[in-house]
Amino acid sequence: MDRIDLLPVGRRVAYWRGRRNLSQQVFADRLGKSKSWVDKVERGVRALDKVSTLQDIAAVLRIDTAVLLGRDVQPAEVAERTVDVERIRAALSRYEIPLGRPAGRRPVLSVDRLTREVAHAWTTFQYARYPQVIDLLPDLLTDVQRTHAHNPGAGRVPLVEAYRITAALLVKLGDAELAWLAADRAMAAATGDWILVAAVAVQLGQVLRAAGRVRTAKSVMRAAAYRIASPMIEYGTPPDLSLCGTLLIQAALAAARYGDGAAVVELLDEAADLAERVGDGHDHHRTGFGPTAVDLARTATAIELGDARDAVAWHEKAIQRYGWRYLPVEHRAAHLLDAARAYLQVGDPVAAGRVLVDAERIAPAEVRHRPAGRDALAQAARELDAPATLTQLADALGVG
C-alpha cells in the first residue's frame, strides 16, 4: 500500500487495523462501538466527521490523527507546535524598538534584572520545559530589545543570549528557517566580540544542520573554533576551551551527516583533548562541554555514519561516566533519543524502548513536543518486541 495517503479515510482505518492485527470485533470493542459501526466506517457508508472520534480511532491504532485525515491535516500536537512557533515568529517580527516606537506600557528593565530573566529562560530550556520557554520568549525578546536600545553596551549580552535561546528552542520545535533568523540576529548583535560570536556559533551550527546545510555548517564551525584557538591555546581558560570544543563537536556532527568519517574522527579527537582539560561537571557558556559530552557526540556521529554498534558502545560508556548526571536534562534527553535510534538499528527494540521511557521520564517535552522525539517513539512502538510501557506512551500521544 504505497499510497495509503490517497485512500478514503475509511479505507485508511481498515488498512491500519490490519497492520495492528486487530479484527473488526476487537477494534470495535476497544473503541466502545459495534462491529457493524466499524464495518460501515471502513466501507465508507458511515462518515467520520467528529474530531474526537478520529482521535479515539488514532489512539487505538497507535497512529497520528493526520495519518487518517491525510497530509494536509495536522494532529493536535502538531497544530499546537505551529501555534507556538507563530507566537515566537510574531515576537521576532516586531520592529517597534529599532523604529523608535513605544512597545506598550512595559518599563525598560535594568540590565541586572534582565540578566536574571535571561538566566531563568536558559535554565528553563535546559530542563527541557519547552512550553514554559515558549511562554517566556515573546515578552523576553521585547524586554531585551528595549534594554539594549536604552543601554547598548550593557544590554548587548542579554540581547545575544535571548536570541541564542530562541534559536535553540526553534531547532527543537523543527522550524529551522525561523531559528536561522534568531541566530542571524544574535550573530549581528555579537559582532565585534569574539567570545559572544563563538557562543552564538554553537546555535548557528545547530540551525545549519537542521536546515540541511551541513557542509556550510562544518566550514563555519571549524573556522569559529580555530578563531578562538589562538596559538597560545594551551593557556586558554575553561570557558574558552569549552566554546572551542563545542564548535569542534558541531563541525563533527555536520561532517558525519554527509559521511566524512575521517573528519569526524579528527574533529572529535581534538575536542576530546580540550575536554580533558576542562573536565566534566561544568556548563560554560551553556555548552555542557566535557569528556562526557564528547562521548555523546561520538554516539551521534556513529549513528549518522551507519555504525550503530559503535554508537551503542559509546552510549553505554557515556552514561557510566560521573559527568553524565551533571549534564543539563535537555542534553541528556536529546542524547537518549539518539541512543534509541542506535538500539533500533542493531535490532534491540527493548533497549530502545527503555531509553525512550527514560527520556520521557526526565524530560517529557523532549518526547511529547519535539518532532524528533515523537518520530523516535513512533518508530520504536511499531516493533513487535516493543515494551508495554512504550506502546502505552505511544497510545497516549497518538503516535505509532
TrEMBL record:
It holds the Pfam family HTH_31. It comes from the Bacteria. Residues 13-68 form the HTH cro/C1-type domain. Gene3D superfamilies: lambda repressor-like DNA-binding domains, Tetratricopeptide repeat domain. SUPFAM superfamilies: lambda repressor-like DNA-binding domains, TPR-like. Keywords: DNA-binding. One of its GO terms (cellular component) is cytosol. Transmembrane segments: none annotated. InterPro entries: Cro/C1-type_HTH, Lambda_DNA-bd_dom_sf, TPR-like_helical_dom_sf, TransReg_Diox_bact_type. One of its GO terms (molecular function) is DNA-binding transcription factor activity. This is Transcriptional regulator, contains XRE-family HTH domain. It comes from Micromonospora pallida.
